[in-house]
Automatic annotation (TrEMBL):
Family indicated by similarity: Belongs to the ATP-dependent AMP-binding enzyme family.
AMP-binding enzyme C-terminal domain boundaries: 409-485
PANTHER family membership: AMP-BINDING DOMAIN-CONTAINING PROTEIN-RELATED (PTHR24096:SF149), LONG-CHAIN-FATTY-ACID--COA LIGASE (PTHR24096)
Record-given protein name: 4-coumarate--CoA ligase
Keyword Amino-acid biosynthesis: no
Record-level Gene Ontology MF annotations: CoA-ligase activity
Domain AMP-dependent synthetase/ligase as annotated: residue spans: 4-358
InterPro entries named among the record's database cross-references: AMP-bd_C (IPR025110), AMP-bd_C_sf (IPR045851), AMP-binding_CS (IPR020845), AMP-dep_synth/lig_dom (IPR000873), ANL_N_sf (IPR042099)
Provenance organism: Fistulifera solaris (Oleaginous diatom)
Keywords per UniProt: Ligase
SUPFAM superfamilies reported for this sequence: Acetyl-CoA synthetase-like
Length: 500
C-alpha cells in the first residue's frame, strides 16, 4: 500500500471533520490507536490533533488483559483498531464503558468483514471536509503548551505504565531539534526506511511525524520483523537512511545472508531505544562499507529526543551531545553536579520535557523536580566535549529489543498464579535482545509447579517481548528492605555473577 502527501492532506482534514461533526470530539477526549504500522497512521494522528483531542498510541501486541488498562487510564472515548487486532479490541471494550465508538482500519483492496456497530475508517477518509478546521488551527486549543496532544504509555523510571502528557509545543520543539541535527545530511529527496513500530515514541516522532512534515518518502512494514525482508526492501526501494534498534544492527553485522543483498544505497543508520556497543557499530560499518552508524538517546518523557550525534561529528559508543535548546547535568546520589568522566544520573531540561504523567501528581513529582529538571534514571558520563555515554540505568526498567518492560507488571501477573507466594523480576543480558526479564519466584508451602508451566501462564497474558525468556528461578525468599521494597539490586548482582 502507499499514500501520497496529497492523500495525507485530504484524509487528515476529512477525518478531523468527522471526529468533530459526527462524533462530537472535544479537547478533553482521547482517541486510542491500536494498530500496527499502516499508511494511514500519520493522517489518523494528525486528524486527532486537528480535531482538538489527544491520541494514545497502543502496542498492537497488547493482550486482552493489557488493553483495557490503557483504555481506562487514558479515558479513551474512541478506539481505532486494525482489522488484525479488532477481535481483541472488541473484547477489551466490554470492560471500558467510556469507549463510545470503535473504528476499524482495513487494508486497501481487502474486503474486511466489519462487525455490526463498527465503523470503517474509509468512511472517515471520505467524509466531506470542513476547511474552517485548517483555516484557523490556532483556535483549536487555548494553550498549546498546556494541552496534551500525544499520550504514550511509559513506565518512566519504574513502576506500572503511566500516561506521558506531551503537548503540541513539546512535539513541535522536538521536531525542530531533530531537524537541526538532521536537515543537512537528510534532504527531502532522500528516502527513509524504518521497520520500527509507530506506537513507540522513537518511531512515532522520528520515523513518522518528521518525514510527514519534511516530505520524505518512508518505507515501513507491519508484523513481525524479518531481517531478510528488510534487506530486500532496501535493495528494491534504495533508501538513503534507516532508523533501527540494536538487535537489528546485530543482525546486519552477523547474519550470513545479508551479503546476498545490495544495501549500498544506505548511507546512514540511526540507532536508538537501547544502548549500542562500539563493537557492533564497527562490525556493521565494516560489513557495509557505504554505511555509517550513529546513535541517539531519548525517552517518552522527552518527546523523545534528548541527545544525538550529527552526520559530521559523531563518536563511537556515544549517544552524542544534547540537542539544541536543551541543558543537562550529571549528578551524584546527593544531587551534586559531577565533572567530565564521572558517572552519575542524567538530568535534562528543555522544551521537549513532558507536562507530567496523566492524573498522577505523585509519580510526576518523582520524575520532575520543582525547577523543571527531568530525572532520567540513566547512569551516564560525558567527555570534555559534552558527548554523553550511557553506562547503566538507575531505573529498574528492562529494555527488550528497545521495548520497555516494567518488572512490577510482570510481578503482578506472576502473583495471580495460585501456587506463587512472592515474585521479583530483573533483567539479564542477552546478545540478541539486549536484555530479557528473569523471574525469581517463591512458591506457597503446599504448592509445586514447573518453570515451564509458570512460563506458559505468563506468556498467555502478556505481549511477546514481555515473556520470561530470561528464565525462572525458584528461591526460598525474595530479598526485601525493612519497608517491604524488593531489593532488586541483590538479585541483579546474583544474575551478573552467574553471567560472568
Amino acid at each position: 500500500m502507499q499514500r501520497t502527501f496529497e492523500d495525507y492532506a485530504t484524509s487528515t482534514v476529512n477525518m478531523a471533520t468527522c471526529f468533530v461533526r459526527e462524533f462530537g470530539v472535544e479537547e478533553n477526549d482521547t482517541v486510542a490507536l491500536y494498530c500496527p504500522n499502516h499508511v494511514d497512521y500519520a493522517p489518523i494522528t494528525l486528524s486527532v490533533a486537528l480535531a482538538g483531542a489527544k491520541l494514545t498510541p497502543i502496542n498492537p501486541l497488547c493482550t486482552v488483559q493489557e488493553l483495557p488498562v490503557i483504555l481506562q487510564r487514558s479515558h479513551a472515548t474512541i478506539l481505532i483498531a486494525h482489522a488484525k487486532t479488532l477481535l481483541v479490541a472488541l473484547e477489551a471494550v466490554k470492560e471500558c464503558p467510556r469507549v463510545q465508538h470503535v473504528i476499524v482500519v482495513t487494508d486497501d483492496n481487502v474486503d474486511a468483514d466489519v462487525p455490526y456497530g463498527v465503523i470503517n475508517l474509509k468512511q472517515l477518509r471520505q467524509f466531506e471536509s470542513d476547511e474552517s478546521l485548517t483555516a484557523t488551527p490556532h483556535a483549536v486549543h487555548r494553550s498549546t503548551s498546556h494541552h496534551p496532544v500525544i499520550l504514550p504509555y511509559s513506565s518512566g523510571t519504574t513502576g506500572m505504565p503511566k500516561g506521558v502528557c506531551l503537548t503540541h509545543s513539546n512535539i513541535v520543539a522536538n521536531l525542530l531539534q531533530f531537524d537541526q541535527v538532521e536537515s543537512i545530511g537528510f534532504p527531502p529527496d532522500h528516502k527513509l526506511i524504518s521497520p520500527l513500530p509507530f506506537f513507540h515514541i522513537y518511531a512515532f516522532t522520528v520515523s513518522m511525524l518528521f518525514p510527514a512534515w519534511k516530505g520524505h518518502t518512508v518505507i515501513t512494514s507491519s508484523g513481525r520483523f524479518d531481517l531478510l525482508e528488510f534487506c530486500q526492501l532496501i535493495e528494491t526501494h534504495r533508501p538513503r537512511r534507516a532508523h533501527l534498534v540494536p538487535p537489528i544492527l546485530l543482525g546486519l553485522a552477523k547474519h550470513p545472508s545479508v551479503d546476498n543483498y545490495d544495501l549500498s544505497s544506505l548511507g546512514m543508520i540511526i540507532s536508538a531505544a537501547a544502548p549500542l556497543s562500539s563493537e557492533t557499530e564497527k562490525a556493521v560499518m565494516d560489513r557495509l562499507p557505504h554505511t555509517k552508524v550513529k546513535q541517539g538517546w531519548g525517552m517518552s518523557e522527552l518527546s523523545p529526543i534528548g541527545a544525538m550525534n550529527s552526520d559530521f561529528a559523531s563518536k563511537s559508543g556515544s549517544v552524542g551531545p544534547v540537542v539544541s535548546s536543551t541543558i543537562a547535568k550529571v549528578v551524584d546520589e546527593h544531587g551534586n553536579s559531577l565533572p567530565p568522566h564521572q558517572s552519575g544520573e542524567l538530568y535534562i531540561k528543555g522544551p521537549q520535557v513532558m507536562m507530567g504523567y496523566l492524573n498522577d501528581p505523585d509519580k510526576t513529582a518523582e520524575c520532575l523536580t520543582e525547577t523543571g529538571w527531568l530525572r532520567t534514571g540513566d547512569l551516564v558520563h560525558y567527555d570534555d566535549e559534552g558527548y554523553l555515554f550511557i553506562t547503566d540505568r538507575v531505573k529498574e526498567l528492562i529494555k527488550v529489543r528497545g521495548y520497555p518492560v516494567a518488572p512490577a507488571e510482570l510481578e503482578a501477573v506472576l502473583l495471580r498464579h495460585p501456587a506463587v507466594a512472592d515474585a521479583a523480576v530483573v533483567s539479564v543480558l542477552d546478545e540478541e535482545s539486549g536484555e530479557l526479564p528473569r523471574a525469581f519466584v517463591t512458591l506457597k508451602a503446599d504448592k509445586e509447579i514447573s518453570d515451564k508451566v509458570l512460563y506458559e501462564f505468563v506468556k498467555d497474558q502478556v505481549a511477546p517481548y514481555k515473556r520470561l525468556d530470561g528464565g525462572i528461578a525458584f528461591v526460598d525468599e525474595i530479598p526485601k528492605s525493612a519497608s517491604g521494597k524488593i531489593l532488586r539490586r541483590i538479585l541483579r548482582d546474583q544474575v551478573r555473577q552467574e553471567h560472568k
